Amino acid sequence: MKKQCLLATLCLGLVLMASSAMAYSLSTNFDGITTNQSDLTTTSGLNQWNDLVRWQIQPTGGNSDSWAQQTPRDDGGHETSLLFYGFDATGLGVGTPFSLEFDFINDGPDTTIGKVYLGGLDTGESISRFAPWGNLDTTKFFEADLATTSVWTHASYTGTVSDDFDVLYVAFRLGGTSGLRGIDNVSLDVAPVPEPSTFLLLGAGIAGLALWRRKKIQA
Question: Alpha carbon 188 to chain centroid distance?
C-alpha cells in the first residue's frame, strides 16, 4: 500500500510538471521565409511574418545570409513600418518568463529610433498592418528602443508575460528615408517555470521510493 501511495505521488508530480512545461520557441534567420500582407488576430495571421509591404527578405548581407529588410519608399519619403509575428499562447499564463534575442541594423542620416515590442491579444483584438497599428499601444507589455547603428548589433531581453493571453506577438518597427534597416536571427523562448509544490511532490515521490527500496533490500 505504501508503495502505491509513493508511486501515485511521483506520478502526480510528473503530470503537474508536464502540464506546466508548455512552452513556445521561435527561431528564424529568415532563410526561406516570406512576409505576408496580413493583419494579426486571435484566429488569423498566426505563425507567419506580417507587414504592410515594406519589409522584404534579402538573400545576402545579413549575419547568416538572409535577413528581413525594411525597404525605402519609392517616392523617397519617410517610412516607418511594422514587421510582426503572432502565435497561439494557450497554456502560457501570467508571469511566464520570456527571453528574446535578435540582430538589427538601423543605419542612415535620418534614421529614427526603432522599437521592438512583445504583446498579447484576446478575442476581438488585432494588430493591423496599417499604421498606427490598431491595439498596439493597449496590448503591448514590453517595448525597447533600437538605437541608430551602422553595423549589425545584437540585442537581448528577458521579462515575464503580463497576462493570460490567447495570442502572443513580437513586432519590430524601424524608420527613415535611406540607409540599411533590418532584422536577423530572431530567437524568442517563452516557457513557464513549474510551481515549487510540483518539485516538492516530485521530490517526495522519488525520495520515498528510494527509502522504500532501501528498507526492502536491508530486510
Answer: 4
Q: How far apart are CA 150 and CA 105, in angstroms?
A: 6
Residues with pLDDT less than 70, the chain: 1-21, 193-219
CB 116 within 8 A of CB 83: no
Asked if residue 198 belongs to a domain, the reply is no
Within 8 A by CB and 6+ apart from 104, the residues are 114, 146, 149, 152, 153, 155, 172, 174, 182, 183, 184
Q: What's the pTM?
A: 0.80
Q: Residue 181: how many CA atoms within 13 Å on its side-chain side? A: 32
CATH of the domain at 49: 2.60.120.260
Question: Are 152 and 117 found together in one domain?
Answer: yes
Task: Report the C-alpha gap between 43 and 80 in whole angstroms.
Answer: 26
pLDDT digits (tens, 9 = 90+) for 140-157: 999 999 999 999 999 999
d(Cα 198, Cα 192) in Å, to the nearest integer? 13
